[in-house]
Amino acid sequence: MPVTTIGGREVHVDAEGFLTDPAEWDEDLATALASAIGLELTERHREVLRFLRADFATQGETATTRRVQAVGGFPTRLQFELFPTKPAKKMAYVAGLPKPRGCV
């Protein structure tokens, strides 16, 4: 399992850079992860990230954009505005979670 330094600390990541240990994540690390992909987090971003982490804790897998809309109440359009181009992948990355199933 590769280790890399993000936000001044070492974290475990997979070959694509996704955290492999969600317990290593916190909101400061989220800021560093977002910055690495060109995002500046707002409170609205953080609301989505908190939903994703809470949902992951109960479901055991990362929510898809459809679930983020249906269960989290964040419309798909908003997800694309906050996390442009590939929202599910970017949301998971910044939330310190595995890439959702079906993401390429």
Give an overview of the whole structure.
With 104 residues, this protein is mostly helical. It has one domain (3-95). The protein is built from 5 helices and 2 strands. It has a two-stranded antiparallel sheet with strand order 1-2. Strand 1 and strand 2 (9-12) form a beta hairpin. The chain is globular, with a radius of gyration of 13 Å. The mean pLDDT is 94.
| Tally of separate domains | 1
Note the total helix count: 5
Query: Which shape, going by the Cα principal axes?
Result: globular
Average pLDDT score: 94
> How many beta strands in the DSSP annotation?
2
Structural topology:
Layout: E1 3-6, E2 9-12, H1 27-36, H2 43-59, H3 65-70, H4 76-82, H5 87-95
Antiparallel strand pairs: 1-2
Helix pairs in contact: 1-5, 2-5
Summary?
GO terms for molecular function: sulfur carrier activity. The protein has 104 residues and is mainly alpha-helical.
Structure characteristics:
104 residues; mainly alpha; 47% helix
